[in-house]
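Homework help board

Subject: predicted structure for assignment chain

Our instructor gave us this sequence and asked us to write out the predicted structure in token form, then describe one feature. I got the tokens but I'm not sure how to describe them. Can anyone check?
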Amino acid sequence: MSWISPDSLNMLGATAGLPEQLEVSASAALEVPGLPPIEGLSAIAVLGMGGSGVAGEILQAVGKDQLRLPIVLVGDYSLPAFVGPGTLVFAVSFSGETEETLEATETALGRGAKLIAVTSGGRLAELAAQNGAPVFATLGGIPQPRAGVATMAAPLLVAMERLGLLTAITPAIASAVDQLKRRRDSLVDGGGTAPEIARQLDRTIPLLQGSTGIGAVAARRWKTQLNENAKAPAFFATQPEWCHNEICGFGQNGDVTRQVMTIVTLRSDFEHPQVARRFGLVKEFVGEAVASVIEVRAEGSGALAQLFDLIMIGDFVSLHVASHEGIDPGPIPVLVEVKHRLSELRRQAPG
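My token output:
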């Protein structure tokens, strides 16, 4: 399993461990005590940035057909005005030190919101402990937050089931684990569909598309994994919105776009029939204006299984793209430098 070189943080091993990560994290989440009461609950907010924020996206996509409460995703320092005593707030930070999430969490606590923290420790764990809020600990040994997508998502899903706000999460997770193991077995030795997709991309800029819901989450995940693992530009859009605006952007400059852009459509069994028909028209309307249109279809029983299936394929695609270019997928020095500079600027700011 050493086809990636260099791979200083063993991102390949971490990616291949996704099925076990989901399985163990879900099992551990069943035992965490101290969940808050849900009487008077009127809304749910998930606070998180980057790889931590995707946990909220997964909850929102998987739960939307069951939940009778609105979920808002907050990737910012500030909170919507409605967040208060009637809001259940999930604060998700792999490190426990994400400044946007910490500031928003402090605001939520000040307004009397009910808090559940998902973190490895740090200041977020301290805030939760000081306020008597439960902490779902992420698994150790994960080299980067983006490699911990399952250990951050599983606590949210399990907590919602334990609170009676979602049903059938336990069997859905079991199905997802089974599908992830099947997909992993086809990808781990450098085979399967991922290297072929990476080859087809051939240094073009991927334009990911997914249907609103699990497809959109998967498309954004592919984009960010290509950004961080392969250090490559990538962009995403959702259907049916794409057919209301972006499709018009391929009406000219085809001599340029067909050399530098590839559309990748991420498909599942959970698309509205009209959205599925829209996907069928993508190649017809813009196929000649891009290098190619690649379709990737999810497998697995249930929405969560198909979402994680698409996530795993995309993660491996990003590793293949990185390997082909001789890029180490683990380190992200520009993000470290951005955080360092922001910290310096904050210290230098007056007041």
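Reply (TA_rk): Your tokens look well-formed. For the description, you could write something like this. The chain has two domains: 32-167, 189-324. That's the kind of observation they're looking for.
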